[in-house]
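Q: Given only this backbone (199 positions), what sequence would you predict?
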């Protein structure tokens, strides 16, 4: 499951858990993006903070892991590179790429879109406020795409950042450890710069 995870929230975690259970997956690998090319219009938090929040959020689930492939690769993150790197690391695995309906709706704007379907199965999770248009679903090879209905959680990272910058709570929208991580490192605090992370 790729994402900016700025911050990771319970919408991501429920989607991952539902898809793990639906397909009986051995492992869900969360892959925080490096430099997300589609979000170049806003300041994205340093990759190490997003990586560590993802580790904190997933640590208690034995089937959840976090990969550094995208944050350790220079340049903008493209899903085609993510899948190629994971394929090298897991040569025998059958890969499923988990996305929300909003991200999947954009898939044909992604680099080397047609090649993506040769590398992984795609799983589109329902997300409140977003619908997939039939033309996009029809254009994806049908054996490579599954839409999965997940319990609706109208949570977004954008809303979590805005709440934090206004001093509103994000308790129960994100895992407790992530609430504490955000406070400790003064993320999304408006004028304050977040702590630098040593790498
Ligand atoms: P932002 O508001 O910064 O875009 P986001 O909440 O959309 O953040 P991303 O990191 O962009 O989170 O999303 C990573 C993946 O998780 C995407 O495929 C997205 O569609 C999916 N996703 C995010 N939130 C939900 C949710 N509440 N329900 C289902 N899928 C979600
Ligand atoms: Mg998003």
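A: Predicted residues:
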């Amino acid at each position: 499951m790729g994402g900016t995870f700025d911050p990771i929230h319970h919408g991501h975690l429920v989607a991952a858990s539902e898809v793990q259970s639906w397909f009986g997956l051995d492992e869900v690998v969360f892959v925080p993006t490096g430099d997300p090319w589609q979000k170049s219009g806003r300041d994205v938090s340093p990759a190490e903070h997003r990586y560590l929040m993802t580790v904190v959020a997933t640590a208690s689930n034995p089937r959840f892991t976090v990969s550094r492939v995208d944050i350790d690769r220079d340049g903008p993150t493209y899903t085609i590179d993510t899948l190629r790197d994971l394929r090298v690391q897991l040569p025998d695995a059958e890969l499923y790429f988990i996305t929300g309906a909003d991200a999947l709706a954009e898939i044909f704007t992604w680099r080397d879109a047609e090649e993506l379907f040769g590398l992984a199965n795609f799983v589109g999770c329902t997300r409140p406020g977003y619908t997939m248009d039939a033309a996009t679903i029809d254009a994806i090879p049908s054996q490579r795409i599954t839409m999965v209905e997940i319990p609706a959680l109208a949570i977004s990272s954008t809303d979590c950042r805005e709440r934090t910058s206004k001093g509103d709570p994000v308790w129960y929208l994100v895992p407790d450890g992530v609430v504490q991580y955000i406070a400790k490192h003064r993320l999304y605090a408006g004028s304050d710069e977040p702590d630098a992370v040593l790498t």
